[in-house]
Structures are given as C-alpha cells and as structure tokens.
Amino acid sequence: MTNTNREWLLAERPTGEPDQDSFDLRETDVPTPEPGELLVRTRYLSVDPYMRGRMRDAESYAEPWDVGDALKGGVVGEVVESESDAYDAGDLVTGEGKWADYATLDADDVAPVDPSVADPEAYLGVLGMPGRTAYFGLLEVGEPKPGDTVVVSGAAGAVGSVVGQIAKRNGCRVVGFAGSDEKTDWLTDELGFDAAINYKTTDDYRAALDEAAPDGVDVYFDNVGGPITDAVFTKLNLDARVAVCGQIAHYNDEEAPIGPRKLPQLIPVRAKVQGLLIADFATRFGEASERLGQWVASGDLKHRETVVEGLENAPDAFLGLFSGDNIGKQVVRVSAADAA
Amino acid sequence: MTNTNREWLLAERPTGEPDQDSFDLRETDVPTPEPGELLVRTRYLSVDPYMRGRMRDAESYAEPWDVGDALKGGVVGEVVESESDAYDAGDLVTGEGKWADYATLDADDVAPVDPSVADPEAYLGVLGMPGRTAYFGLLEVGEPKPGDTVVVSGAAGAVGSVVGQIAKRNGCRVVGFAGSDEKTDWLTDELGFDAAINYKTTDDYRAALDEAAPDGVDVYFDNVGGPITDAVFTKLNLDARVAVCGQIAHYNDEEAPIGPRKLPQLIPVRAKVQGLLIADFATRFGEASERLGQWVASGDLKHRETVVEGLENAPDAFLGLFSGDNIGKQVVRVSAADAA
C-alpha cells in the first residue's frame, strides 16, 4: 500500500453547467482510522445527478459541499485496516465515502457487499441508493396497479431502468423515455419495456405517447422534467400518480425555469404529484435490499453499469450524467480487485 | 303562478374571457313534472368558477354544456308541484337545476333545505358544494396538523373562507390571499385569519409571506394559481401538502399558460400536490353536512353571500367571479320567498 492518497475537492461553485474548473485533485496522506473506523480503499465511486445540488451554497436535503472540502459520495471499497470488530481487512463494504483513493468510514455507517449476489459495482446501483429509490418511489408514491400504464423518464438510467422492471413485475404497461437508440433498444429488448421513446430524435412527445400509451398514463416516474414532463402531464389519467424523483433537465438552472403551468391539469384528473427522497424510507431499506437482491440473484432484475476508469476521470463521469453518457448506473473504477 | 318560464342558454362557446354574447335568455313554458319529479321555482341560483370549464367542448369532470342548451347549476328553490311522495308543495329543496325561473328536478336528486339552520342561500355556499369542498379538501388532502401554517388563495371566496375557518379550528396559523382591503379585513377581523394579503396592492408576495408565514407553509389550499401560487411554492416546508382546488386565474386561458416550473421545488421538501374534486367524497357528504351545519348553527363558522338580484343578471354574476366581485358565495336571487 502506497502512502499517497488523492482526493477531489470542490474548487469553486459553478454557475450554470459545471465544468472541470469546479474540481481540484489534491494529494494527501492516506488517513489513519480512529477506533470504530475502517480505512477503505475505494474500488468504485458513485457519481449521481443529485450531487449538482451539493455544489450550491443553499440549504437542501443533502448538505452543501464547501469550497476546498473533499467531495463525498457512495463508494464500494475494500477494508485495508479495521479498528472495528465488525469488519476485517479484505472485506468489501459500501457506504458514504469520498471521491478519493482512500477514506476512513465509521463501521456503523457501512454495509457489507456480497460478491456472490452481484458484482460489487451493483451495490452503487441496483442494490444501492438508486435501486432503493426505484423500489420505494414506484411502489409507495407511484402505487402501480396491474393494468396501469407507467411512464418513466430517464428510463435507461440507474433509477429508471429499475423502476420499469419493477412496474413490469407488477403487471403494468411500461413506457420509457431515453436519449439514444442504444438505450431504447436496451429497454425494450432486454428489460421488457413495452415501448421506448428516443426523446432526442422524436419531435412530438404527445403524439409518441398517443401511440406508446394509448390508454393514457396512470403512473409517471419523473427523473428528468422539462418538455418530456410537459407532454406526459397532458396524458394523465384519472387519479394518476406522479413521483418527482429527479429533474436533471433543471439542475444546472440558476433560476426557476419557465414552462407550461401544470396545476390546472391536475384538477380534472385529481392527479397526485409528490416529491420523493429515498431517505424518507430509511427504516425500510432492509426490505428493499432483500427483494432487490433476490431479483438480481435470480436474473429477473437486469442491471448495467457504465464504468469510467480512474479517479482522475471522476469529474468527467459526473459531467457526463448531464449529457446522458451513461446507460444504467454511472460509476468510476478507482482501483482493481487485486490492487489493495 | 305564471305559465312563462325563462332559461339561460349557452349562445356560443367563448374564446378566452366570456362575455354577454356567450349567453342567451329564452322564454319557454313552465315544464310539467313527470312521476318522481318536482317542479321547483328557483329562489337562488349558484354561479361557480368551474362553470367556465363547462362552456368548453372538451371532455372533463363536468359534462360540457352544448350550444343552445339550458345552463345548469346548483339551485335552492321551492317545490310548487310534486309528483313524489318525498316532498310536498311549499318545501324548500336544493339540487342541480337550471339557470331558469322553474325547472323539474328528480326528487331523488334533491336534498331538503332547513331554514332554521341558515338562510336558504347558505345551502349553495357554506352548506353546499363549496362548504363540502373546503371540508374534505382541507382535511383529506391538506391534512392540517395543530401548529401548521395553512395558506389559502381566493381566501374570501365561498370555498377559501370556509377552509381558513376550519384550519383555525384545527389549531393552525392561517394566512389568506384576497383581492381587496374589504376582503382582507373580513378575513382577519371576522373570520379569525392570522394574516391576510391583498394581492392586488402587494408587489412582492414572497416578502409578504416571509412576514405572514414566518415558519413557512405546511398546507397550501389553492383556488387561484398564477403568481400567488408561484410565491407560495417557494415557501413550502418539509412534507407540505398542496390541495389544487381551483385555478381561476387560468380558466379563461386558451392554452397552458407559461410560468416558473415548480416540480424541482417539490423534491427537497417532498411536497405532495393533489388535484381535488369534491365528487370523489360523495359517499361522505352526510358527514360534512352534519358538521358544517352544526358549526353554522352555533355561529362558529361564519359565512357570507354576495347576492345579485334577478335571473336576467345571472351572466353578470358569473362574469364577476373572474374579477373577484364577490365576497363569500356568489348567488343570484331569482325569486323572493313569497313569490311562488
């Protein structure tokens, strides 16, 4: 083990779209774990759209990153030094770490990773926060019933791809919006979506929905916002449910963007629109992990990760989320299995 | 009893703001009740904002009015001829009638009016559809808890004025938006609202809310839409509930109006926004009528009606809703108590 560590810092708060100037890579010493802590070497680092919000100096659900501080995020890593009875060196764990080669994590805040269930990187996607978000967001906010039509935006992403498959398990017709033919093919050919719309090559989303969702929309799981959402709102059925999970189209906006007002459309159909944060379901994470793990292990729930190689490319991986570079979960491979 | 009847027809579908040209007054014969029906002489006719939607040729929750057909609406009237065992001539009833001097109503579709509880016109307001809408909309969609701050737009209207008083009964801080000093004075001095904002003389609604709702907004009961709603959405607290009851600012729009997108604001606070139609609570109307009747009879629940005289002025009364002419429920007095 080298004694050199690298950590990404927030160099400056971006205005509008972030770029490389927002990030700075610092060399530090590898930290030493305190009692109860683990020194973890990062295998995989998660980059997620919500992190754009942490780059703002504004109170929100996720604590803002301070300029000059190390960036945080979900990691899967190998314990290289343990000051806890709960884990030994060599164990694989997942938790909230840093954009870094090494970080110390409190043993109470990590969960074990079982490579017999799925590849370790899946613990940042289908078996991690995105999978749990899909599970509770769809089932608890979307409340899908057999025969319902479920529309998902960002359908080929880490959350959307799981939402659509759970909706299919629940007997729904599932329609996804995604940004390339490769993505829409994956949705329909591999994941079992009934229809998928390439929003970058489709001009008229309402007409596309007339064909893909001829009976209207009962559940809309929204990861994106913007014109896709405008179109879906015009197709909401009586008692429709909208889970507002993400609005990536708007994360770089500096003020509330302008669009068609949607509230008048809610009255005739009595639709329910609800903001969704996975932290609200924390007491039930065990249930989600168990179910998702069973479905992944049996092969019923398919998943995919887009891997960028090297900690030095973590900002690129993050920035690529906003242009839709990823299929499934975007992760950064920081070290290989035999590197610890 | 004269044999001449007058009925208002839909003369043409309005584009944008309706005017007198949308209405035509026709003379007809007084109808004859069939078995099971009542011939009812209208005392009071209700004009309501939702009727703007019935002037469109578009499927919605309320059946569209056809051009050339008599306009329908809530009435309180006196039975002048009964072909039913359930009511006798002289009884006062309320139900869905016509914008007319006389109409036949199915005895199964009317409810008795008890003038010992309140003046008959109150059965079109606090004891009728608007009162029930306030009751279920606030309690079931808004879910107010003691200590919550409840904001109501259209607060001096038939629904809003009841919402605010029920919220006060539930131990909430209540803030209303209304369109004149007479209205805001009524809210704070008579109805017990904690604060009221005159939206026609206030420039900065967000600053006004900072003062009137210093702890943020837990429940927003929206009758209006537009810039008031934009401001309230920026103040929503964690787990806030928004009941979208009306959007009168938009009923004359010919296409979806443009405004700030609100969905991104819902995620950090996990707010729930729900379209509300009173018909969904039809099986529980008895509960609402009983509670509202008790509160009105005891004087705890105050109400007010704005009365326009004469069936010939019914279109004016309707059109005045869009300029906010009414305080409390807008009704039209079609005949006096001794006129049948």
Automatic annotation (TrEMBL), chains A, B:
Residues 1-35 are annotated as: Disordered. InterPro entries: ADH-like_C (IPR013149), ADH_N_2 (IPR041694), ER (IPR020843), GroES-like_sf (IPR011032), MDR_fam (IPR045010), NAD(P)-bd_dom_sf (IPR036291). Gene3D superfamilies: Medium-chain alcohol dehydrogenases, catalytic domain (3.90.180.10), NAD(P)-binding Rossmann-like Domain (3.40.50.720). This is Alcohol dehydrogenase zinc-binding domain protein. Keywords: Oxidoreductase. GO terms for molecular function: oxidoreductase activity, acting on the CH-CH group of donors, NAD or NADP as acceptor. It comes from Halorubrum distributum JCM 9100. It comes from the Archaea. Residues 19-332 form the Enoyl reductase (ER) domain.
